[in-house]
Amino acid sequence: MDGQGLALRNSEMDGQGLALRNSEMDGQGLALRNSEMDGQVLALRNSEMDEQGLALRNSEMDGQGLALRNSQMDGEVLALRNSEMDGQGLALRNSEMDGQGLALRNSEMDGQGLALRNSEMDGQD
Questions:
Q1: pTM for the whole thing?
Q2: DSSP conformation letters of 45-56
Q3: How high is the mean pLDDT of the chain?
Q4: Which of 10, 27, 70, 124 could form an S-S bond across to 58 if both were Cys, CB 3.0 to 4.6 Å?
Q5: pLDDT tens digits along 20-56
Q6: What's 117's DSSP letter?
Q7: How many CA atoms lie within 13 A of 109 on its CB side?
Q8: How many C-beta neighbours within 10 Å does residue 46 have?
């Protein structure tokens, strides 16, 4: 992805879940740095956000659902609504972003890899 959008560099899929390693974001969007996957759940560790976007710090996944703990947002805020964790992969359903950031709508996880279906970006991204 060039410009204002999402750049996933050196990302990998590990076992049952999503592993994003050494991925970076340019411009207004999402920066996921040194994030790791632990077991069945999503653990975002030491991730940082520049500019208008998302800062997820010390966030953890609890059980089957999505728990964002100690997450912080700079500038425009992130709204995650009705997001769910489904089985082996990551399912973000009906999540929305206001303002400058990321809108992931009706995205799904398929098999061992990442499938983003019907995802949309609003604003800068």
A1: 0.17
A2: -S----TTSEE-
A3: 39
A4: 70
A5: 333 443 433 344 444 444 433 334 444 444 333 344 4
A6: -
A7: 20
A8: 12
Burial label for 113, CB within 10 Å (0-12, 13-18, 19+), is: exposed
pLDDT reported for residue 33: 42
CA-to-CA separations, 78 to 11, 14, 102, 110, 125, in angstroms, rounded: 23, 27, 8, 25, 14
Mean local confidence (pLDDT), 59-87: 39
Using DSSP's 3-state secondary structure scheme, residue 14 falls into strand
Q: Find the distance separating the first CA and the last CA of the chain, reported in whole Å.
A: 10
The one-letter code for the residue type at 1 is M
DSSP states of 69-110 as a string?
-S-EE-SSPEE--S-EEETTEEEB-S-EE-TTS----SBEEE
Distance separating alpha carbons of residues 17 and 87, to the nearest angstrom: 9
Find the mean pLDDT for residues 96-125: 40
